[in-house]
Protein: Aromatic ring-hydroxylating dioxygenase subunit alpha
Amino acid sequence: MGRPGRRSKFFETRSCAANARSIRMNASIFIMDSWYVAAIEAELATDTIFARTICGEPIAFFRGSAGQVIALEDRCCHKSLPLHMGMIEGCSLRCGYHGMVFDDTGRCTEIPGQEHIPANAVVRAYPVRSRHGCIWIWMGDPALADDNEIPDYHWLDAPGWGARTNYVHVKANYRLIVENLLDLTHLTFVHGRTIGNAAVVKQAGVTFERGDREVKVTHIMRDVQPPPSYRASVAFDGPVDRWMIVHYAPPSFCRLYTGAVQRQGDQILRRLDWRNLNAVTPETATTTHYFWGHAQAHDPGDEAVTDFVVSQIKATFEEDVVIFEAQQAAISADPGRPTSRFSTKADAGAQHAMRVLDRLLKEQASGQPVHIKFTELQLAPQLPASDVDIAIDI
Amino acid sequence: MGRPGRRSKFFETRSCAANARSIRMNASIFIMDSWYVAAIEAELATDTIFARTICGEPIAFFRGSAGQVIALEDRCCHKSLPLHMGMIEGCSLRCGYHGMVFDDTGRCTEIPGQEHIPANAVVRAYPVRSRHGCIWIWMGDPALADDNEIPDYHWLDAPGWGARTNYVHVKANYRLIVENLLDLTHLTFVHGRTIGNAAVVKQAGVTFERGDREVKVTHIMRDVQPPPSYRASVAFDGPVDRWMIVHYAPPSFCRLYTGAVQRQGDQILRRLDWRNLNAVTPETATTTHYFWGHAQAHDPGDEAVTDFVVSQIKATFEEDVVIFEAQQAAISADPGRPTSRFSTKADAGAQHAMRVLDRLLKEQASGQPVHIKFTELQLAPQLPASDVDIAIDI
Amino acid sequence: MGRPGRRSKFFETRSCAANARSIRMNASIFIMDSWYVAAIEAELATDTIFARTICGEPIAFFRGSAGQVIALEDRCCHKSLPLHMGMIEGCSLRCGYHGMVFDDTGRCTEIPGQEHIPANAVVRAYPVRSRHGCIWIWMGDPALADDNEIPDYHWLDAPGWGARTNYVHVKANYRLIVENLLDLTHLTFVHGRTIGNAAVVKQAGVTFERGDREVKVTHIMRDVQPPPSYRASVAFDGPVDRWMIVHYAPPSFCRLYTGAVQRQGDQILRRLDWRNLNAVTPETATTTHYFWGHAQAHDPGDEAVTDFVVSQIKATFEEDVVIFEAQQAAISADPGRPTSRFSTKADAGAQHAMRVLDRLLKEQASGQPVHIKFTELQLAPQLPASDVDIAIDI
Ligand code: FES
Ligand code: FES
Ligand code: FES
Structure:
């Protein structure tokens, strides 16, 4: 397990100094000691090497003999050919140029034509885990990788929930996406045809909770009209109490607990419960792998209902992507300018998240450990046994 | 009205320091205190927000309730979404992200979800005017914008003239276009099939007049064969006296007075009179919005004649654009090299124009006022009542 | 003939200082005092101006009145229009903008509209020669250009050989191609379906000879199975003795002598003799004009055999190009990183070649003469009269 004292040593003992420099470059804009979602399980077929750049680092993913996912630096340390152009051999990759073989620890085990394997003949190997239908990767010091710290996204494959996971490539910095998820007042203007309506902006009672490494934003809207996509999913025929709770954990995990109940006196007539689970993985400074899952609890066993709900949500994500990419284009066209010149009340959550990120990146840059420990967070809603009643009681 | 003393204050009191820096960056290559043509009137439909970058600044144009054109900075000061992605509401724009509203002065008048409007919630508003079928924009200190200083392009909609206005996007710096217009010896080699022939280079008596902020180049060719496009427009059947007068005013206004008369003794048998009116608006350092109008006085009432003449001229512009873009590509491929290593006699006009521009940019950079005042220019041909006889008498 | 003492003067007396600086910029990555292949003879039609960038310099090629090739800087010194957009007039080019004429020495001989020709009105002229079906260009000080130093590629048009020459544009730095040609162990993994098989890596007896300005790598494989393309070209029906000799001369000439014999006791039953002649001409830092010829001596008079052999070889070049471009993309994505972190035994030839190049570039940067003299090289195989027996005797 990682100890802070080891950290700078880790960076120094990389296979060469230039390698370390490259890492530091990425580390100035990305938190490295963190889990990220690298892929949806289904993206990674057997017998195929899958290439994806994460936090600026090109990575080759493949399945070993037992089906387990292995992730190696996607650049042969011999002559820079991407390893994804090579061949899988058991739990190793053979480079497609001069045939060197690298095992699942990144160590070279064969150099055709010679016995001696130089100490520098090694590529980086990344800790990876399969969980909740996703492949998770640890981008920092492998010694610090802790399975228990993989963010809790259990709703994606838990009983009592009908869920789907999606991937969209976005030409924008990951922060723009996190800010979006933490300020839901945009629903009214961007998503008026699906999940937004005037209620979100005008009637919402919003509270912000700011932790050392997290943010929680709670919207409670009582006695409001349900938005179009709610009505399409559950047969509401009158006003509802509606909630939207967003929990942010760095670097870029946003879990949304949303839903509504229609009451008659003390009785609940109809109820909608959703989890919208976002894992925003940086690719480069201006591009992002955006993974999002959506789970519904009102008809968990009905695939058609889940498909319908997710198709509604998908439309809202497509609306958001247009926004992100337009923001990024405007920012890239004049990078000297601040992206935001003032903040609104509704920005309080996003603003705190950005401050947390900035502080962590500064700590990382100064060599302090920034290890993101998901299990130590305080603000995520504590879920009772039934899990569905959480917001109703608020 | 602008006073020099106010100037630096204007730059300082921009909504934030970064904004001012961005302006200064553009100001190192573009004159800011000047009118520019932003669009042809017809480009700007009602109910549509039109986006165009001018002098490096992205701008959203739209028509207010009374049909008047309004121009706002095309980047929301909240989170950088381009405002052209929003909605028109009367004389205001509502941003398409969080719904803030900006009026025609750029001031934010509504932030959904809160009462307080922060002082920084403002985008830049640009003075705009409709004149001669074009939309003109003032890129500098709004306090200095003076309608009387809009360059005189009245031939585009004056009685006695048949005219058309055109737009072409050019992948080249605006200076390459100005230089082209001020050295008409290229007509022989680039436009031999239309308006050029050997006469332009070989027989022209050229005079150069150099003002403090302007240039005039006069070509008089006596007893020469009219070029192909002249012959196609007017039934010349013998040699003519031909003239081409180019007047340049900074930053990039070039008005060409061209024509020819066929004489028999003291009598004028046939006569061709054209105005070619160029407004060269920088987009970025390597791209330009090139607006040009063309007016003819020989058959002003006959639309077919005007169309025919303009189609001839249009062909020459297309030939020029190929040249500009090839020059720019060569320059961009090796930017350390001077674009020109020596000058010819024919370059005298272009050379002076570039010196004027360089001097003005230097003055602007040092904080001196460079306000371009069109009405104070001296060298533009003084037009007699009939306007057509001007060159004949020269 | 060039004397070292003249050299720095040459760079200083270029038409202007910026020109010299531009040259120096290219000189930091390219050897300038060298012949390069600029084009295949057939690429350069009569009456057409052919544009190609070599070692970072844009060049216009055309044929003069006698059919001889002339090469001028492809950027008019007047206003930067590429000269390839102009017209051929005898042994001169007329610029397509203002009509200036430049003769085959680069000197301006006509400026339309004036008598005086300024001293700076000159573009660079490059020594060019036609030899072995190729057009060769000298990129350095013209005074040092020596026809005798054009690399020996005579097999491309010699009696007793059937040959073809090919061109492929590669999006990779030229060094990646040189390294490839000097380490043939990649044949097994990249070209298994054509010229490679396990023998290359596993059974080869390889010797390296390192000269001051050259490298020779000799592979002798005795009693091995001939690879697929050998068997397709000559009817081998048993094991062969096979050889591959690679000779490298800077900047980037690699000549491969390859072949095989099938013996029965002292008798030679079947024999395959090939020359693979590579001229790797840098275009920019990340792109290359790759010329390669292939000659066969087993059926020199049969065009169909030559076509078949070359089609086999062409397939291997296409496989290599994929490798080069993938390497370059990986390198360009993270340019701070070394392209190679260690070397294998098989790298010894490529490694020495890169050291020779680095040393020559360093000498060039410090103003020392680096003039590449092909005739003074020592290691190229000395060919007996019959030329075919060379490798068999080794
Ligand atoms: S580049 Fe991978 S083995 Fe050589
Ligand atoms: S980005 Fe315009 S209102 Fe937020
Ligand atoms: S640019 Fe070549 S003659 Fe003017």
About this structure: The pocket of FE2/S2 (inorganic) cluster (ligand 3) is lined by residues C 76, 78-79, 81, 95, 97-100 (CB under 6 Å). DSSP finds nine helices and 18 strands in chain B.
